[in-house]
Amino acid sequence: MMSLNMLSRSVTRTALLSSKRLGPVSFFSNNDSHSDFAPQRKTISDDDEALKMIHEHVQTNHIMLYMKGNPSMPMCGFSATVVKILKDQGVDFSSVNVLDYPSIREGVKKYSEWPTIPQLYVGGEFIGGCDIITEMHKTGELADLLKPEKSDDKKE
Amino acid sequence: MNIIQSTTKFATASVVSRFARFQNRFLISQKGPCRGTSNYNNATSTMEDIAAHPVETSIRLKINSSLTPNYLQVINESHMHNVPNGSETHFKVVIVSPEFDGAPSLLKRHRMVNSILAEELEGPVHALSIVAKTPKQWEKMTEENIEISPSPSCRGGDGTLPKR
After folding, report:
1. In DSSP terms, which residues pair with A153 in a beta bridge?
2. Are A19 and A26 in contact (CB under 8 A)?
3. How many angstroms separate the CA atoms of B58 and B110, rounded?
4. pLDDT (tens digit, 9 = 90+) per residue, A6-19?
5. Using CB atoms, which residue from A76, A131, A136 is nearest to B158?
6. pLDDT value of residue A36
7. Sign of the C-alpha dihedral, residues A67, A72, A76, A78?
8. Per-residue tens of pLDDT for chain A, all 156 residues
9. In chain B, which residues have their Cβ closer than 8 Å to the Cβ of A136?
């Protein structure tokens, strides 16, 4: 039984609105200390709906991570590595726990034509999985890619 | 540091008797900068190995055939994860190939490997870590003694694979 869990972890008003609008996306901020969420159940009925949802996710959230588990409790070492890298980069990002949504788990593989999770999107573009993100982090390429998002000025 | 680079031609055999006639062994060097965690200590693949490790063998065969690598290491990392002993679900591949000269982007290289191993990835392989280097990059890594990082440890899994 699949359900859509609307998570509302947020720090900024923009993030809160974003989370409510997009379904199962949770927003993680490095400034956030605790999450409150109010689950709202909805069924993802088919593959097309999942693909549309994914498209909206990646277009609306500048840094979008499809992972196993959530940033506070990853359920996969590869996902945990990407989360740690993003935290080290000091950026806020949105995420979906694909373990809760099998249709999104399969849909995101079709969307990116990439067979594994985690998957990181920046600016609507698929960047890669754990290996690529790790390598880009080492070379500094990831920092350059994420540079516009590294702002100490947080909107309150 | 010397890297013994070796690939030998490997002829597939879907039938045991055919394989016996075309029996080949190929050696994967244990020297080189790769220090990734591995339970792969046997550098020689025999008919028994193929029967015991069909997925690993298939991966090696396909990469050898498609990318003619100068260096190839296929590491079964399943033992690092919450799956039964003897599983072939999690792999790391270290590939050094001149084919990557025409693919400077990591994403493109990884997509090449994913494409080669599409059947495995749709089937038994749950996770695939890829290190894809050109010969020049590999040589530089060797000179600088840069090691391949081991894959991250398991966080318990997602419950879809049979547990230990």
Report:
1. none
2. yes
3. 18
4. 433 332 233 333 33
5. A76
6. 62
7. positive
8. 444 444 333 322 333 333 334 457 888 776 656 656 555 545 556 788 999 999 999 999 999 999 999 999 999 999 999 999 999 999 999 999 999 999 999 999 999 999 999 999 999 999 999 999 999 999 999 999 998 755 544 444
9. 106
* Residue whose tokens read 């919450």: B82
Contact at CB, B129 and A130, closer than 8 angstroms? yes
Instruction: Give the separation between CA B41 and CA B27, rounded to whole angstroms.
Output: 11
Q: Compute φ and ψ for B30, nearest 5 degrees.
A: -90, -5
User: Are the CB atoms for A23 and A53 separated by under 8 Å?
Assistant: yes
**Rounded Cα distance, B37 and A16, in Å:** 42
Cβ-based contacts of A81 with chain B (< 8 Å): 152
pTM of the full structure? 0.72
- Nearest Cα of chain A lies from the Cα of B87 at a distance, in angstroms, of 17
Q: Which two tokens stand for residue B135?
A: 């010969």
Residue B4 clears pLDDT 70, i.e. is over it: no
CA distance B1 to chain A (A): 23
Nearest residue on chain B to A73, alpha-carbon basis = B155
Q: Tokens 């290996």, residue?
A: A131
Interchain contact, B128 vs A116, CB within 8 Å: yes
Q: What is the 3-state secondary structure (H, E, C) of B87-102?
A: CCCEEEEEEECHHHHH
B43 token code pair: 């550098």
Q: How far apart are the first and last CA of chain B?
A: 39
Residues B36-76 have pLDDT tens digits of: 333 333 344 577 777 889 999 999 999 999 999 999 999 99
| CB count in 10 Å sphere of residue A18 | 18
Q: What ipTM did this prediction achieve? A: 0.72
Neighbours of A34 (CB within 10 A): 6
d(CA B25, CA B11): 10
